Here is the input.
Amino acid sequence: ALALAILCNKALFPVRVPITIALTPPIARLLARWKLVKSLKQT
Here is the structure.
């Protein structure tokens, strides 16, 4: 089971990375708006 999980993880890595990069900024802004995260450089 662990080997299968590792195999799937490696196989999906090229798919996950662009999605993660694309989603991070909007989610970070949303969390900053909710004051859950120390705000990014808001001037």
User: Anything to note?
Assistant: The two ends are 49 Å apart (CA to CA). The chain has one domain: 1-43. The longest helix spans residues 2-33.
